[in-house]
Write a structure and sequence with these properties.
The chain is mainly alpha-helical. It is built from 5 helices and no strands.
């Protein structure tokens, strides 16, 4: 018998890992190419790799991709006009760092259902993201 509720948790974790890593990558491009800042670029890359490490702690993680059903996901077709408007690289950064923070919080909460150790790791990552955001704010507002 299929454990439907367990499958839901894996789908939530999978979607939010993808969302967090995509957002981090966008922010990393701002650090690298707009700010030309090695330290911030390295910090974001480190966080992306820490998410990969946390992922390894999730039991039965092969189910993450196995249960992915992106094209039929009820959230797939929902678009907001705001999603397609960006006024510049600062706006791009802030939209994506918000996406990262939200996703890592979801990962922290739902991974509690699979591994407390993993949840604690995501909590640590979330605070690292808060710290990086503060460093970015200082750099971006000085431009």
């Amino acid at each position: 018998m299929k454990d439907y509720k367990s499958d839901l948790v894996y789908r939530i974790i999978d979607a939010n890992i993808n969302r967090a890593k995509e957002g981090l990558r966008v922010c990393e491009e701002v650090a690298r190419f707009v700010l030309d800042n090695r330290s911030l670029t390295k910090g974001l890359k480190k966080v992306r790799h820490e998410i990969d490490q946390a992922l390894k702690m999730i039991p039965r993680r092969a189910k993450l991709c196995e249960l992915r059903n992106s094209l039929t996901d009820v959230g797939f077709g929902i678009k907001l006009k705001k999603e397609f408007r960006r006024s510049g690289y600062k706006d791009i950064f802030f939209a994506n760092i918000a996406r990262v923070k939200e996703s890592v919080r979801v990962l922290e909460e739902f991974s509690k259902l699979k591994s407390i150790k993993t949840a604690a790791h995501f909590k640590k990552i979330r605070y690292e993201v808060y710290d990086l955001e503060k460093k970015f704010i200082n750099r971006l507002h000085n431009l």
